[in-house]
Amino acid sequence: MSATSQLASPRTSSTAFPSYPTSASWLVVPSSLTAKKKTDPRVAGRELRVSAVITASISQVGNQIEVDAELADVSDGARLWGQRFTVPSRNLATVQTLLGFQIASALKQKLSIAPKGSPTSVPEAYKSLLLARYFFNQRSREGFNKAIQNFEQAIALDPNFAAAYSGLANASGLRAFSDSSPKPGFEKARQAATRALELDPNLAEAYTSNAMIAALYDWNWAKAEASFRRAIELNPGYSTAHHWYAIHLAAMGQFDTARVELGKALELDPLSPIIRSNSGYPDYYQSRFTPAIAAYRQALELNPGFAVAHQDLATIFHLQGNTKEQME
User: Fold this and answer.
1) Gyration radius of the chain over CA positions
2) Does the structure show a pLDDT above 70 at 10?
């Protein structure tokens, strides 16, 4: 498997949109998902201890995707804001990013500040964080480089931005994982994660970053396990914690438990190409190649250019002795 596909996409939103940190007091919930599960978004908001939720109704009209977004108060369901957005119908990864920026921009103009409950009061720092997460989710060397630049920009704009330090830890660690000399990158990751916890001792993202470092660099399985569990305890709605914990469990041979955690991650972030692709790992480790291939192909349906899924497919096809023609 490729080095860059070992861990997941740290999206802090539980939706298709790169949105407000789930440690903050806003949460985005697609109304299509809540309707399917017959869940009141306000109930979801109270469970995750947020003060407001954004519901999003999504439809496709020709070559356009229309989204009706609405911000509602969790306490009484009062409508605080609403707006319709239209973006070109490209691949889903592009659509979700465009919508995320449009929604964040609209709310920024509405409120004239960084998102309520955001761990920064500097709007430009939050914008840099969103850009960093977008590049990070590309899971490429270039993407990691740009993510690090933008996380560092967010920190320069707000030195007390804990979420930016956690993001910097994740990008530095995953980039270092494929380096011939990983120590400098992982030490940078460790310093960033430590600073994040100094700023916010209850930040689930930072515990997840520490778990990643313990698993990939320190090989301290017990510490990784404890950190993943603490992250999930602090924020059960953080999809990355479930996702990365699942990959750790699969590597430990706990395949059934890994599948449960992957299911939770997919439920929280169903349109994440990296989570969808990594959902094939338990099957890959057990040489169950058919369901693993299905997972990788599902990731490519979300983003046809997603390199991690292509690499994982190529690995299996190579093990099976498939020709180039069969692979296509």
Assistant:
1) 19
2) no
